[in-house]
């Protein structure tokens, strides 16, 4: 399954938007997993500059909420938008986040900064897991307590690494149901 | 993953309220926000919360003043003070005046998650402690028993045993069928022990892989394995000064039994990847639904470990052997679910009670709870009658062809449960006393789809 790269006529439900320098392979792995695991038709949009207006200079981190708000306000594009960047993300109240999203909303953002591993394949897989987790939130899923589910909140990277690349069957069922609803009620 | 905890976030910075509220909502908590002390008090009058996260520094009424006002109205309300990074003095002041904990802005997500889990667990325990009226009909009723409800002789004996074993430091093994409430007994022992003020750290040994269980119990040092980017405390360390409850102890591997045995004997251990011994002293309570002696005979359980964890044993009998508890349990759950759903259900008719008393309860108290929840949800009147409990009665004139295979029977049974729950998977799973994941998997296997 290969994600489309820029065809505006596509029926994509999610736009994956890279901010700043990004390894293409990681981007492809994230997009492919969003499609294959969550069933979200995904297209990779053109690279945009790093969102400097969201930079919290004192913390050397980017404010995830600001990025999400800006993505949500964009009039054009797929119903769901997910930013992805290599720089460190936070929300003002938390020291860092791997990703952030609107619960049952339209926009999310993830960062590969803290997911870095010497093996680039592992970094990309971690990115895909975070992207799928945030996509679950976009569809309206809360955290799950099943040990082997992507919607389980991973406090640490070792917990994230232990998760398989899938939702538990209950979350999978919910994802499919909510996705169907999202496809019907496409954002105008 | 809805959790039974209502939280109020009070902060004059809207962005903080919004961000914290969003994070807690994703964790499954119900959240309300207030931009000032006055607004918080007004909202509290309408609907008190189970936990208050209060910013220390606010214009007008500051965090300490608001905490005093909340305490005046809701003395037992747990309050966590939010302070600016580095302002230890204000954190200390808050703790002295009764805050259960404090968080320095910005919070570490892991720290926040652990703190919320701790508060939610304490809240569950407190809720369970709010024992219903009437289950003990004499003035000599024991103090609150952590949600253990009953009036049977068998249960009285169990509770007496708890009173006896609780003050001693000896390890306790709780045995009993699934659904009998072994976790509640463990908490009751902890609450009556000398470690009651210390932490109660529980872990289900059957719910995780060996590697994860090892990491959860022992913790690890930074770099111990791929992804261990910083050191982490394990449950053995967290339980220091309190009680460690190992549920489903019959499921752990022989290797883990050896590792735990060593900790119990030496009272110290090393984190994974570490070589610095860490001392820990805790009271051990284990539980299992399996026959450990049988596992010993089959050489699946180590004899030395068995005798180490089995110094004192408490067996909780299945519900069918203490039917006298059924009426009070039914009444307890009926009032609980009537209050939760807002339905004016008052009781069960004598015929309905007869049906409950005549049922074998293979799923024990958990099954009874699920049955009562279901009948309260479908109840139309003030009394629950026999017809609402018809699903518990023998099939009677139901015609089951002799040729029905086990698969067909399973399919039919699942379909009935789903239809009775309006195809709500969570409700049907509760009814069947299995988790929703298992039900979803069975539905897929049997090709059961909502019509």
Automatic annotation (TrEMBL), chain A:
The keyword Transmembrane helix does not apply. This is Archaemetzincin. GO terms for biological process: proteolysis. InterPro entries: MetalloPept_cat_dom_sf, Pept_M54_archaemetzincn. Its cofactor is Zn(2+). Keywords: Hydrolase, Metal-binding, Metalloprotease, Protease, Zinc. GO terms for molecular function: metal ion binding; metallopeptidase activity.
TrEMBL record, chain B:
SUPFAM superfamilies: CheY-like, Homeodomain-like, P-loop containing nucleoside triphosphate hydrolases. Its main location: cytoplasm. Residues 6-120 form the Response regulatory domain. The keyword Nucleotide-binding applies. One of its GO terms (biological process) is regulation of DNA-templated transcription. Residues 148-377 form the Sigma-54 factor interaction domain. Keywords: Activator, ATP-binding, Cytoplasm, DNA-binding, Nucleotide-binding, Phosphoprotein, Transcription, Transcription regulation, Two-component regulatory system. The keyword Nucleotide-binding applies. It comes from the Bacteria. One of its GO terms (molecular function) is ATP binding. Coiled coil: none annotated. GO terms for cellular component: cytoplasm. It holds the Pfam family Sigma54_activat. The modification 4-aspartylphosphate is found at residue 55. InterPro entries: AAA+_ATPase, AAA_lid_NorR, CheY-like_superfamily, Homeodomain-like_sf, HTH_Fis, P-loop_NTPase, Sig_transdc_resp-reg_receiver, Sigma_54_int. It is found in: Cytoplasm. This is Sigma-54 dependent transcriptional regulator. It comes from Desulfatitalea alkaliphila.
């Amino acid at each position: 399954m290969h994600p489309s790269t820029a065809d505006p006529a596509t029926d994509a439900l999610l736009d994956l938007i890279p901010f700043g320098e990004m390894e293409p392979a990681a981007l492809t792995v994230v997009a492919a997993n969003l499609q294959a695991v969550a069933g979200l038709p995904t297209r990779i949009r053109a690279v945009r500059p790093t969102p400097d207006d969201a930079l919290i200079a004192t913390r050397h981190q980017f404010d995830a909420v600001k990025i999400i708000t800006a993505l949500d306000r964009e009039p054009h594009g797929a119903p769901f938008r997910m930013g992805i960047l290599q720089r460190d993300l936070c929300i003002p109240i938390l020291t860092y986040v791997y990703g952030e999203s609107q619960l049952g909303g339209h926009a999310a953002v993830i960062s590969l900064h803290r997911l870095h591993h010497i093996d680039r394949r592992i970094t990309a897989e971690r990115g895909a897991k975070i992207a799928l987790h945030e996509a679950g939130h976009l569809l309206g899923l809360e955290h799950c307590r099943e040990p082997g589910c992507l919607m389980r909140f991973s406090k640490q990277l070792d917990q994230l690494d232990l998760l398989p690349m899938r939702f538990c069957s209950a979350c999978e069922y919910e994802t499919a149901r909510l996705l169907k609803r999202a496809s019907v009620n496409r954002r105008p | 993953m809805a959790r039974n905890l209502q939280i109020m976030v009070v902060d004059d910075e809207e962005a903080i309220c919004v961000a914290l509220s969003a994070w807690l909502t994703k964790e499954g908590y119900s959240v309300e926000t207030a931009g000032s002390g006055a607004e918080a008090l007004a909202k509290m009058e309408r609907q008190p919360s189970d936990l208050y996260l209060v910013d220390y520094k606010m214009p007008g009424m500051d965090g300490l003043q608001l905490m005093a006002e909340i305490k005046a109205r809701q003395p037992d309300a747990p309050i966590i003070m939010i302070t600016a990074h580095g302002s230890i003095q204000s954190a200390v002041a808050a703790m002295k005046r009764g805050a259960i904990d404090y968080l320095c802005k910005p919070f570490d997500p892991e720290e926040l998650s652990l703190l919320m889990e701790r508060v939610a667990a304490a809240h569950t325990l407190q809720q369970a402690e709010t024992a219903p009226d009437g289950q003990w009909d004499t003035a000599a009723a024991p103090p609150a028993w952590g949600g253990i409800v009953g009036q049977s002789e068998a249960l009285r004996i169990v509770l007496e045993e708890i009173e006896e074993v609780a003050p001693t430091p000896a390890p306790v093994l709780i045995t009993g069928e699934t659904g009998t409430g072994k976790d509640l007994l463990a908490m009751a022992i902890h609450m009556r022990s000398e470690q009651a003020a210390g932490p109660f750290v529980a872990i289900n040994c059957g719910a995780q892989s060996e590697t994860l269980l090892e990491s959860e119990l022992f913790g690890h040092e930074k770099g111990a394995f791929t992804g261990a980017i910083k050191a982490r405390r394990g449950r053995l360390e967290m339980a220091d000064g309190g009680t460690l409850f190992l549920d489903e102890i019959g499921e752990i591997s022989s290797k883990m039994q050896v590792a735990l045995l060593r900790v119990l004997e030496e009272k110290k251990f090393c984190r994974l990847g570490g070589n610095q011994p860490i001392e820990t002293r805790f009271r051990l309570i284990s539980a299992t639904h399996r026959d450990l002696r049988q596992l010993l005979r089959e050489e699946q359980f180590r004899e030395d470990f068995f005798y180490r964890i089995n110094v004192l044993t408490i067996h909780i009998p299945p519900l069918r052997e203490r039917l006298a508890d059924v009426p009070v349990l039914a009444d307890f759950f009926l009032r609980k679910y009537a209050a939760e759903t807002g339905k004016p259900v008052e009781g069960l008719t004598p015929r309905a009670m007869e049906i409950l008393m005549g049922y074998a309860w293979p799923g024990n108290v958990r099954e009874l709870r699920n049955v009562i929840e279901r009948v309260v949800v479908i109840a139309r009147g003030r009394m629950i009658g026999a017809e609402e409990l018809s699903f518990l009665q023998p099939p009677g004139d139901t015609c089951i062809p002799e040729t029905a295979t086990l698969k067909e029977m399973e399919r039919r049974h699942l379909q009935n449960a789903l239809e009775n729950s309006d195809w709500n998977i969570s409700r049907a799973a509760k009814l069947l006393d299995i988790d929703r994941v298992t039900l979803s998997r069975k539905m897929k296997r049997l090709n059961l789809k909502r019509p």
